[in-house]
Predict the structure of ATPase AAA.
Amino acid sequence: MNARTLDPAHHLIEKEPYYEAVGDEILLFEAAWRQQIPVLLKGPTGCGKTRFMEHMAWRLKRPLITVSCHDDLTASDLVGRYLVKGGETVWVDGPLTRAVRAGGICYLDEVVEARKDTMVVIHPLADDRRTLPMEKLGLEVEAPPEFCLAISYNPGYQSVLKDLKQSTRQRFVALEFDYPSAELERRIVATESGVSEAVASNLVRFAQMTRNLKGSGLEEGASTRLLVHAGKLIADGVSPVSACKAAVAQAVTDDDDMLKAIQELSSSIF
Ligand code: ADP
């Protein structure tokens, strides 16, 4: 493991991450942070939640520790565990503990993916107690005022198994994220990928068409992230139709009919 990734000091973001505000999310996050209320970011994948967190960590000058949650993620993965190193048993803090100790921002991405016991760990951190129980060490760590817990959740993937429980969600200030307005998205795609405003505008139009297919065979339309990918390929010399196929169509579906439908959309625009 790389020691750099373990030291929260290295998670300080020095250069401003480019972020276009969609509404009053920056103000709301800053207020929630000052008031020591945890934050829940809701919204589909690829619509700027991670970038927003990077931007806020830079603004608030706090280290950012991001954990992508998955269905094997346990409370110990977050809190820490004993490891045998050179014949000795040593305690190694997990990312959540490191963030708490450093007064940083801990961002748990796609939190509903994690195993149920992880929620037990974040609950006392996400209410007035603001403590992290470290069962294996038999102690509780109190979070400093600068510490912030943020989690993300995609309501689009909602299922009985993968729903965020009321007992969890009602501890958070919730910020809703969605695809930006056409004008804003055009600016984001042009800035991030290097394509002209005209090409970016067509990519956005194409994305909006794919988003209309959601529910009729498509789980999720093209996200801003995919448009940035397509834009980067185009800026690198790939034809727009090929770029849309590789970066967007193939990324959102494996279904042959749907692939054809999406390709027809891009051919009609480019
Ligand atoms: P999420 O975390 O919601 O899945 P990301 O934050 O990774 O999505 O966003 C994907 C990409 O889209 C970013 O890397 C960035 O290029 C672009 N992006 C999306 N929204 C914005 C925004 N509001 N400002 C700047 N870039 C954005």
